[in-house]
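Hi W., the 2BA complex you wanted:
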Amino acid sequence: MKLIIAIVQDKDAHVLGDEFVDANIRATRLSTTGGFLRAGNTTFLVGIEEERVEEALDIIRENCQSREQYTTLPMHLDTAMDSSMSFPIPVQVGGATVFVVPIESFFRF
Ligand code: 2BA
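Structure:
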């Protein structure tokens, strides 16, 4: 048994959740926040038999797109006037960040 931890963009979470249900893959959704952009994303926890891991990864791959997002960096102007401004920089956010970890024990009571 493995635990798949998949961090995906909120825009893809709904479709991905539906695809898991259709494939009879059990998942838990957590509302999470990216440490860099500090924007909301969604983390799926999927406990799954080892022989179905590739199937679950294929579903994630097919339903999560990479997109460009913008973040702003503060820029301090080195002038006598104490002024600063911020400017947008593009950041490529991946379709999904996925960890596959072994499960020592699994119980459903
Ligand atoms: P965020 O931390 O908000 O990162 C969003 C995107 O910003 C990242 O996309 C990456 O392109 C960029 N980025 C992140 N940290 C950066 C840095 N220190 N300098 C420059 N650019 C940076 P992804 O790599 O596709 O990550 C998407 C989300 O997946 C992340 O959102 C975070 O929530 C999660 N994530 C990514 N790698 C992770 C890791 N090693 N451990 C835990 N969570 C991770």
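The chain has one domain: 2-102.

W.
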